[in-house]
Known about the structure:
Peptide Methionine Sulfoxide Reductase, Chain A, 7 helices, 16% strand, Met_Sox_Rdtase_MsrA_dom
Amino acid sequence: MTMSMEKWVAGGIAALVAGLLVLAGSGLGRPVHAAPASVDVPVPTGAADLRQPGVHRAQVVFAGGCFWGVQGVFQHVKGVDSAVSGYIGGSAADARYPRVSSGGTGHAEAVQVTYDPSRVSLAQLLQMFFSVVHDPTQRDRQGPDRGSQYRSAVHADDAAQRAATLAYIDQLQRSGVFAAPVVTRVEGGRRFYPAEDYHQNYLALHPDAAYIRFYDLPKIEALKRQYPALYRDAPRLVMPVSVR
């Protein structure tokens, strides 16, 4: 199994910092996590709800930094049938992890979420995305990861989804819940390419990895705390996908 050097280094540094914080802390021996802070965002209003009784399958693609944590969060959401890590924004020839990691392909690391809109609405998915999945005020970065491949974006080919997402971003901007402007892009019309098999279910399969413990597991805890009615303990894993 391979991992980009930047994530290996970031995970190692994170583990070292966490260990030093424990030693310098209260002496109680509890681990200290510098987890990204979750935010309580307002409930989307108006058309952003998009509940669809009788419709049991819809898709939307979220890009919010490293796809390990984004996938991991949505796999714990009731009503989400699958969350697949992959790439969006560039060409098929460049939809490979080593190329995407270079930052020059136009691709973003992203997660295609297939969900049942009669059980979980787009509004609820958007709330999770903007509150616990990532920091939407960070441009081309999340946590230790830097580059356009880590940009914040929502890719929706459905016009109603795009309109609802734009309306919610406007609502967030006006609410003042974030200290900085939301920089999330809303796009459509781009093909999603599943990532290599070793990236699928990464959080669930490697919970002890330093990067996962430091940057991603706190997101799962925030999801459980902020959205208990939609949280499921056992993640919905995906089967291996075909690599082009």
